[in-house]
Amino acid sequence: MRFQWTVGILCTLVSLGLTIIIMGQRQVLVLLERNDLPVELDKLNTQLSNLNTFKDSVEKLLNQGNKEMKDLDDSMAKLAPVIEGKKGQIDDCQAEKKIKNDELEDLEKESMQIEENLKSESGAWNLEISNLKEQLVGYREICDYVKKNTLAMKLCGNKTVTVS
């Protein structure tokens, strides 16, 4: 029986010791939480001040944007008559451009026809020139009737007899 009493007392003492340790740890945690609370409050205060600063800057930007929009609306109201006048000028200019393009097309067609005529005429003239060059180089029958001197012989060339 003594053994049972010893084991019972030992278990009770261990249980009391563990209970005291657990209670001490809880008290330490409560103290740490109390010490951490001001740090968290400081963090929250910093975040709040940052958010307030951000809010102020956003409001300032919004007010500035609204002012700019109002100024632009006023400018648009002043420029509307000018824009309408410019639209009329643009229409006039485009109509004039169309007329000038039509005139240019007519002139280009006429120019193409003139070039074609010149090309066809130049072909005939080139053929005539080549024929005349051949006659100039070759022996001409009139040279048979020219007096025999050196200049005439030089211009007439040599008579070549062709055997047919």
Number of helices: 2
Number of strands: 0
Which whole number gives the mean pLDDT? 84
Instruction: Give Rg in angstroms.
Output: 59 Å
Structural class: mainly alpha
Shape: elongated
Distance N to C terminus: 166 Å
How are the secondary structure elements laid out?
Elements lengths: L1 H136 L12 H7 L8
Explain what the structure shows.
This protein has 164 residues and is mainly alpha-helical. The protein has helices spanning 2-137, 150-156. The longest helix is centred in the middle third of the chain and has 136 residues, at 2-137. The protein is elongated.
Q: Summarize this, please?
A:
The chain is mostly helical and about 160 residues long. The protein has two helices and no strands. The mean pLDDT is about 85.
